[in-house]
Amino acid sequence: MTARLVADAEGLAGIRLLEYLPPNMGVQTPEEIHERAAGMVEDLIAALTRPAPQEARKKPSSAPQSSTGVVFKGDVNEVNEFFRQNVWTDGLPIMPPTAEEVDAMLAFTDRAPDEVIGVLPPKRLAATVRSVAVNGVMAGCRPEYMPVLLAVMEAVADPRFCVEDAGSTLGWTPLILLNGPIIEELNFNFGQGLLRPQRQANITVSRFLRLALVNIAGYRVGETDMATFGRNYYPVIAEAEAASPWEPLSVDRGFARGTNLVTVQSADTVSHAFLTEGNAECQLHLIAQEVARVLGGPPLGPLEQFGRETSPILGLTPLIAGIIAKGGYSKADARRAIFEQALIPARQFDERLARREQGHNLKESVRRGNLPARFALSEDPERLVPVMRRPEDLIILVCGAPERNRSFIAAQMGSQGLNVSREIHLPRNWSARLKR
Which of 73, 206, 230, 317 stands 20 to 30 A from 238 (CA)? Predict the structure, then answer.
């Protein structure tokens, strides 16, 4: 089913397919994998040499967002049932995207409704300004969130983000980071409990992205979304810029302080809120230990396997960031200290690499150019190596309960969901529109 849907989206409706159950790397031996593949050779030759069957197939139903017409009439319950049957929801009830509600969203942008922001695989439907508005209404967004939604869609549509990987068996979910005055203007939570789903702005903007992945990208669980387990969407993480002793993420990303900015990237998982104590040096040491534990676990794979770039996130409360800053550490200093102390034995790395490929180890990864030379300075299996390539890879965000000494880490999946930032462009007379 997945292959058929992708083939249809790519214009290959008559493609010949041969089903091959993927090997379970690390469970099956190489001999078992080769034996299974060898048994398919004759079928493969036949599929390549015989005429392709001209079988008619029903195309997946189109999502409602690309049309300006009415797709259904009924009460709220009937609309929800209709949308649910067409797999246009995330399983939760949606706000019916009536013409009036969609027009209210469009009133908060100066862009034309039919402007195409991008084309999202695997279904390759066009993400238009109107389709953003429709999915925003369905998610429960307020009309004034529209500029944020457009920036989120621009980020996801960027080829760098690799939205085509969002349905992989890894099951990662996008994480949205927010900076700028718009945080307080639209009442985003940047403080206590910001990862709870209670604040409308944080949770509905994130839900919008999940619905857009369903309705525009075309992700369907068991069809194009093949997550082994998967995860729910995380609320938007807004930075507590005024409470931070350092420059905000927007400046780290090359924008001027005060820029309204969204950054979207993949998140494999968000860790528990771990506890730290003591002065700046003690705080950094304990944080580094936790970074080593989280990134040195299963997410360690992306460091070598999924490209040459990763961007784990470290969330610090204003209290913790303040202690570190008062100890004389800039944000760059803090990154360097954590990088130098977030270490694991090379043996752990080598064992994981060897399970994926016989004879593969850190030395071989360095030889291939996949890791820096620092990872193979000696043959000692107990030598300590970093869990990041460089200090600059670590994103530090100041957020959460102001007076709590807890932090979190969000691992990122390398080339699957690379971070993309987009400035939020406000419409003319923004302040006046907000007051209506």
Answer: 230
Look up residue 140 and give its two tokens: 């429960």
Report which of residues 41 and 106 the model is more confident about: 106
Per-residue pLDDT of 172-196, as tens digits, reads: 999 999 999 999 999 999 999 999 9
Give the whole-angstrom CA distance, residue 284 versus residue 277.
9
In a domain, 151, yes or no: yes
Kindly give, in sequence order, each residue whose CB lies less than 8 Å from that of residue 177, ignoring residues fewer than 6 positions away.
236, 237, 238, 239, 249, 262, 263, 264, 265, 313, 395, 397
Q: Where are the alpha helices (DSSP H) in 213-261?
A: 249-252
Residue 430 lies in a domain: yes
- The predicted model scores a pTM of 0.88
Q: What is the C-alpha separation between 110 and 44, in angstroms, rounded?
A: 53
How many domains does the chain contain in total? 1
Instruction: Give pLDDT, residue 3.
Output: 64
- Neighbouring CB atoms inside 10 A of 197's CB total 15
Asked whether residue 253 carries a pLDDT value surpassing 90, the answer given is yes
Nearest to 412, CA basis, from 265, 200, 238, 292: 265
Query: For residues 182 and 153, what is the distance between their CA atoms, to the nearest angstrom?
Result: 17
Q: Residue 258 — very low, low, confident or very high, per pLDDT cuts 50/70/90? A: very high
Q: How far is CA 210 from CA 23, 118, 138, 290, in A?
A: 29, 16, 11, 29
Asked, for residue 391, whether it belongs to a domain, the answer is: no
pLDDT for the residue numbered 66: 43
How far is Cα 273 from Cα 383, in angstroms, rounded to an integer?
29
Which range of residues forms the domain containing residue 250?
A: 72-258+422-436
Q: Quick one: pLDDT at residue 60?
A: 44
Task: Report which of 232, 237, 174, 171 is spatially closest to residue 202, judged by C-alpha positions.
Answer: 237
Q: For position 59, what pLDDT does the model report?
A: 47
In a domain, residue 348? The reply is no
Helix axes 200-212, 129-139, angle to 10 degrees: 130
